[in-house]
């Protein structure tokens, strides 16, 4: 059956139109330009998939370029994390580049602009510059330093570069038009003085370029054909093009900026500043806390590269911003893990089940299928004995007809094992059930082919042999925020909407096949959800993270 042809998104349409006009296929080159001031999040994942996906589609190079122009917020840790995340998603970059690679070239161009009368040094405080910008309906006012001589501008700019001026004492501004309708064109700042050590250049530079000055010129230096960014940069496009005209000739191949809409994820924040606040305040343990929407956090929680790429493909590229329900991301990981994750048995809220007519001291090993969705997954052996653990919620002393689990006088099947019947309970002084006593039908073993094994019962329970059980710490993760848009209410702090039940840590009992797992291994705990082994796990003290429940239960929690 022929594969259904996908229609082109508007970004691909732009590229196709360019190829039909004056672009050649060998002209195509893309870039992913993160700022190394935090860890990448799910929003960045869409941008990564867009740019690198275009590279794969058109067999064109894609650079990974770090926009490292602010040494106050940038760290090597973030650079390393970004590279790790892009590689983990399955992408390879053509060149690893940094805006700091171009500091000398950017400086030289700035000097040329001073000489041509297109830039000047302003010695006003930032508050005065902002006030003179005007408003969208009122033109700005010229700086009193706008007509400084070229010689004075060059001298001051050199002193700024050499660290002979104080931070905030001077800035370099482009000389454009203080009455421009686009306020970004009202003599924007190109350089500011920062006496800070840079993670790559050290103390070589005391001035640092602003984003609008560095970004387009970096694209130009790298021969990027299409510079894709989010919609908030649409007003910047005019300035992007103005700067390019100042540093290029008419014969040069110039990059083209185009914009697409952010896709915000419900019950999530993606502001790096706010994510950093969560880390610094200890609300989460780290940038890769499994509750964080960072790619590192999602990876640690058990998400797969394929699930995130599928999510990015499903939401697509749009021209308007909207909120994507996080349940779609959860659907993508369920769909992926359903095909690949081995099925195992684990009990998270245990109560002891004693099979009174099963011989004491005896045990047997039963065959269990690893994954019914994967014919090549094979099977494993699980131990069965007289004393088992089952889930507390799988037993009721008294139950109505709609309860299809274990109750007194009724039969259920133990997964891969026998049919049992509830007989009695043992309670502690508080009246809590501590043991359930039952009997089993020795002829009813699953797969044995006997008439008794074919008998139909309405419920099937998972279980773990108490004698063989592996004790493990299990972290039950849920959404970090309990409202759809935690940072949308201007009258409240986003922390007011934290979900107090975003993490519950419990002790669980697992089948012994999980005694030798490695960090990153993923499993389906039957009837419970998908789990993976945390990086803090050891053989002596295994730790599992819940990636996602088997079904979307959030709507039920909120009465939706």
From TrEMBL:
Residues given in the record as ATP binding sites: 35-37, 230, 270-272
Species name: Salinimicrobium profundisediminis
GO molecular function: ATP binding; glutamine-tRNA ligase activity
Residues engaged in binding L-glutamine: 67, 211
GO CC terms of this entry: cytosol
Catalytic activity line of the entry: tRNA(Gln) + L-glutamine + ATP = L-glutaminyl-tRNA(Gln) + AMP + diphosphate
Subunit structure and binding partners: Monomer.
Keywords, sorted A to Z: Aminoacyl-tRNA synthetase, ATP-binding, Cytoplasm, Ligase, Nucleotide-binding, Protein biosynthesis
Enzyme Commission number(s): 6.1.1.18
PANTHER family membership: GLUTAMATE--TRNA LIGASE, GLUTAMINE-TRNA LIGASE
Name of the featured protein: Glutamine--tRNA ligase
Gene: glnS
């Amino acid at each position: 059956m022929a594969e259904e042809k996908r229609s082109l998104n508007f970004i691909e349409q732009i590229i196709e139109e360019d190829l039909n006009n004056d672009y050649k296929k060998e002209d195509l080159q893309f870039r992913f330009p993160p700022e190394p001031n935090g860890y990448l999040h799910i929003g960045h994942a869409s941008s990564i998939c867009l740019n690198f996906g275009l590279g794969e589609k058109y067999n064109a190079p894609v650079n990974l370029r770090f926009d490292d122009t602010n040494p106050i917020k940038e760290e090597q840790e973030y650079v390393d994390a970004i590279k790790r995340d892009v590689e983990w998603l399955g992408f390879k970059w053509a060149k690893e580049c940094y805006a700091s690679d171009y500091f000398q070239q950017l400086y030289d161009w700035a000097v040329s602009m001073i000489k041509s009368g297109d830039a000047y040094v302003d010695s006003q405080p930032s508050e005065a510059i902002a006030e003179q910008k005007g408003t969208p309906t009122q033109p700005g006012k010229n700086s009193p330093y706008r007509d400084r001589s070229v010689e004075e501008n060059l001298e001051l700019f050199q002193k700024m570069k050499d660290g002979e001026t104080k931070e905030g004492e001077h800035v370099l501004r482009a000389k454009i038009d203080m009455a421009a309708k686009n306020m970004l064109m009202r003599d924007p700042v190109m350089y500011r003085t920062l006496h800070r050590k840079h993670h790559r250049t050290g103390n070589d530079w005391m001035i640092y370029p602003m984003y609008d000055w560095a970004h387009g010129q970096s694209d130009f230096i790298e021969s990027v054909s299409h510079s894709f960014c989010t919609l908030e940069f649409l007003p910047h496009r005019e300035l992007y093009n103005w700067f390019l005209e100042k540093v290029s000739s008419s014969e040069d191949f110039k990059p083209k900026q185009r914009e697409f809409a952010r896709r915000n994820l419900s019950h999530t924040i993606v502001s790096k500043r706010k994510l950093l606040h969560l880390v610094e305040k200890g609300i989460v343990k780290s940038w890769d806390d499994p509750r964080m929407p960072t790619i590192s956090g999602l990876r640690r929680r058990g998400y797969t590269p394929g699930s995130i790429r599928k999510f990015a493909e499903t939401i697509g590229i749009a021209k308007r911003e909207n909120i994507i329900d996080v349940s779609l991301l959860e659907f993508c990981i369920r769909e992926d893990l359903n095909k690949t994750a081995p099925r195992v048995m684990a009990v998270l809220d245990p109560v002891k089940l004693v099979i009174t007519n099963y011989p004491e001291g005896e045990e047997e090993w039963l065959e269990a299928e690893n994954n019914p969705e994967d014919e090549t997954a094979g099977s494993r052996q699980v131990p069965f004995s007289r004393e088992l653990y089952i889930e507390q919620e799988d037993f009721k002393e008294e139950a109505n007809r709609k309860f299809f689990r274990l109750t007194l006088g009724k039969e259920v099947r133990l997964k891969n094992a026998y049919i049992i019947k509830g007989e009695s309970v043992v309670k502690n002084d508080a009246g809590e059930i501590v043991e359930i006593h039952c009997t089993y039908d020795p002829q009813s073993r699953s797969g044995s082919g006997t008439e008794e094994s074919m008998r139909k019962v309405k419920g099937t329970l998972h279980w773990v042999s108490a004698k063989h059980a592996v004790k493990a710490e299990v972290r039950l993760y849920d959404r970090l925020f309990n409202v759809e848009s935690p940072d949308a209410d201007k009258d409240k702090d986003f922390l007011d909407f934290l979900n107090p039940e975003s993490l519950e840590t419990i002790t669980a009992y697992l089948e012994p096949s999980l005694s030798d797992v490695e960090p990153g291994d993923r499993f389906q705990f039957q009837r419970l959800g998908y789990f993976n082994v945390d990086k803090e796990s050891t053989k002596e003290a295994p730790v599992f993270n819940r990636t996602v429940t088997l079904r979307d239960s959030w709507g039920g929690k909120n009465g939706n």
